[in-house]
Structures are given as C-alpha cells and as structure tokens.
Amino acid sequence: MIIIFFGAPGVGKGTQAALFAERMGYGHLSTGEALRNAIAAQTDIGKLAKQIVDEGKLVSDEIVTKIVEETLVLPKFQAGTILDGYPRTLGQAEALENILAAKGQKVAVVVNITVNQETLVQRLLARGRKDDNETTIRERFAVYEKETAPLLDFYAKTPNLIKTIDGEAEVEEVYKRVKAAVEAR
After folding, report:
1. How many CB atoms lie within 10 A of CB 172?
2. I want to staple 169 with a disulfide (CB 3.0 to 4.6 A). Which of 21, 70, 173, 175 is the partner?
C-alpha cells in the first residue's frame, strides 16, 4: 500500500508518518532522509545531488524522483510505503504515478493533515531551529500554497483518495484519526 502524508509545514506529517510506519510495519520514505542517504552512499544520483547541494541550489524534481524510485525498491518498502514530503510538485506527482504504474501499483490514500496557519507558525517557532523565524516560516507557507497545495486538486480527481484529518490535537489523537482514515479508504 502506498500512502502519502500531506499538509503544510509544521502539521506533523513527519511525526505521524514515522509513527504510522513503525506501528504498521511500513517503510517510511522521507525525501530529505533519502537524499542524504543517496549522497552518503555516493550513488550516481547521490553524487549529482551532492554537487547541486554544494552549489547551494535546489535539487530538481527529476533527481528527487530518481532517488525516490531507487529507494522504493528496498526491502523495507515492500510491505507498504509511507511517503512524507513527496510529491511536492505536480511534476513529482505525475512522475510518481508513472513509477507506480510501471510496478502495477497506485497511491492508496492521501492523508491530508490540516492545522490553522497561525497555530503552525507558533509550532514552528517553538521548534527553535536556526532557520525558523516568522519571515522564513511564512515564505515556506507561500511556497507550499503555490507549489504543493495544488496537488490536492490532482489527487481529488480520484474519488475518495484524499482523507482530510484535523491535526490540532495531541499526537496520539491525531494518530487515531490517521489510522481510522486509512482503514476506511
């Protein structure tokens, strides 16, 4: 089963994806982690990604997709896959569909976690990361709204694929909502 965890920065996608993967025995594919692993393993695509990152540039959709494709064949993803942070653009979503179609698979459910934006700003500020100030956080929301949020329209073409979850609760309560939504698919 392929599950996409979706939502704005700070909604808890990573937390919920890791929790769900651990409890259900699925592989958790965080694109940031997969990129770092490809660079560390010095795969051909990892070497190319490292060069781009070292130049201070963003890794292209094609490179991120290739890393996802290479990662999905690993044994830990055979029982099920949680995608966290991918796809982020329409190009990535279309590429993912092609990768999955070639394997006779498709996305089973998109778990769309929602939280009020002002709550998210406070959550992200509370994390205390160096790059988390109100200006950069709001810029990330703007990028999300422009590039990633339109994917909901893309996935809405498939009836009942998107399950929207209220993420304004304690971690365990949100997990229960996520699990119920996936089971109801």
Report:
1. 9
2. 173
Task: Characterise 7 by phi-psi region: left (phi > 0), alpha (psi -120 to 50), beta (else).
Answer: left
What is the CATH class of 2-183?
A: alpha beta
**Residues, the chain, total?**
185
Instruction: Report whether 29 contacts 2 (CB < 8 A).
Output: no
Q: Within 13 Å and on the Cβ side, how many CA atoms surround 140? A: 17
Mean pLDDT across the stretch 49-58?
Answer: 88
State yes or no: cis peptide before 87, omega within 30 of 0.
Answer: yes
Terminal Cα-to-Cα distance of the chain (whole angstroms):
11
Average pLDDT of the residues of the chain: 94
Handedness of CA 29, 35, 39, 43 (dihedral sign): positive
CA distance 97 to 101: 6
Q: Where are the domains of the chain?
A: 2-183
pLDDT class for 172, splitting at 50, 70, 90? very high
Whether the Cβ atoms of residue 130 and residue 78 lie closer than 8 Å to each other: no
Q: Distance between CA atoms of 144 and 146, rounded to whole angstroms?
A: 5
The amino acid at 88: R
CB 12 within 8 A of CB 37: no
Chain position carrying tokens 């179609």: 101
Residues 24/80, Cβ–Cβ less than 8 Å: yes
